[in-house]
Amino acid sequence: MKFIAIIPARYASTRFPGKPLALLGGKPIIQQVYEQVKKVIADVWVATDDQRIYDTVTTFGGKAVMTRADHKSGTDRIEEAAEKIKTDADVIINVQGDEPFIQPSQIETLCDLFKHPQTQIATLGKPFESIEAVKNINSPKIVTDNQGFALYFSRSVIPFVRGVKEEEWLEHFPYLKHLGIYAYRREILKEVTKLPMSSLEKAESLEQLRWLQNGYRIRVGITNVETIGIDTPKDLERAEKLLAGKAQL
User: Fold this and answer.
1) How distant, in Å, are the alpha carbons of 79, 100, 140, 180 from that of 94?
2) Is the omega angle on the peptide bond into residue 159 within 30 degrees of 0, that is, cis?
3) Above 90 in pLDDT, residue 62?
4) Strand partners for 149
5) Distance between CA 30 and CA 155 in Å, rounded?
6) What pLDDT does residue 22 have?
7) 7 touches 33 (CB < 8 A)
8) Alpha-carbon dihedral of residues 81, 87, 91, 97, nearest 10 degrees?
9) What are the residues facing 94 on neighbouring strands?
10) d(Cα 153, Cα 223) in Å, to the nearest integer?
């Protein structure tokens, strides 16, 4: 099975304009992400709508492709990129451009999920370690079936543990945090990017619910490795400390 990784990266971030080009450990964030993914996947591309990002990637020796500026999601951007690249890969991995701490083991886990013939889309989940983290609406939760396929994603705490004090819920159910890395079989990526927004997606503001609501099967791999995305300049400060070993995830 052949894999390709495409990293969507745009310049016009609301909370952190120019984020992919911000320096982390003396390198642009996008280079840190690219080099991490390259440890596992031989064919790695950056899909961007900005010439500055394109030039930066090609300057450090990476591969980049220009895409339209009007995409509403990274999924749409990687589909355009895949068409332009004319890839013959069986599976396309979508790694966020602001995840410089993504680990090779996580990418390997994602790839292994496609050994199951019914896996159409794959993603990762990590066990929560505190009820406070579970209650954070910015950390979507996953509920899976017995074969590891997603039943639902929600910003709310799911499931509700009846008859148990809230602070004891983690002792009664293995709550799973969703990590925003995906992989798609090539033909499935083409299909899901043609779907209109679904009612569940609009309600929760979670793109993956569009796929579930339309009957696609998302298999969830488990990782115990924590990573942090960089959404703001403050996140970048923390990332610098992590890289220097002066802080912990």
Assistant:
1) 10, 14, 18, 9
2) yes
3) yes
4) 219
5) 28
6) 94
7) yes
8) -30
9) 6, 182
10) 17
Q: Which amino acid is at 87?
A: T
Q: What is the DSSP string of 182-248?
A: EEEEHHHHHHHTTSPPPHHHHHHT-THHHHHHTT--EEEEE---------SHHHHHHHHHHHTTSS-
Closest Cα partner for 34 from 122, 121, 107? 107
Does the CA dihedral 221-30-36-111 come out positive or negative?
A: positive
Can you tell me whether residue 110 is helix, strand or coil?
helix
User: How far is 123 from 183, CA to CA, in rounded Å?
Assistant: 7
pTM: 0.93
pLDDT in tens, 198-209: 999 999 999 999
Closest Cα partner for 124 from 116, 112, 136? 112
Q: Is the pLDDT of residue 223 over 80?
A: yes
Tens digits of residue pLDDT in 72-92: 899 999 999 999 999 999 999
- Distance, CA of 31 to CA of 35 (rounded, Å): 6
CB 97 within 8 A of CB 29: yes
As a whole number, the mean pLDDT across the chain is 94
pLDDT tier at 248 (50, 70, 90 boundaries)?
low
Q: List own/partner pairs for 87-91 with CB under 8 A and 24 or more apart.
A: 87/4, 87/43, 87/186, 88/2, 89/2, 89/3, 89/4, 89/43, 89/186, 90/1, 90/2, 90/3, 90/114, 90/185, 90/186, 91/1, 91/2, 91/3, 91/4, 91/183, 91/184, 91/185, 91/186
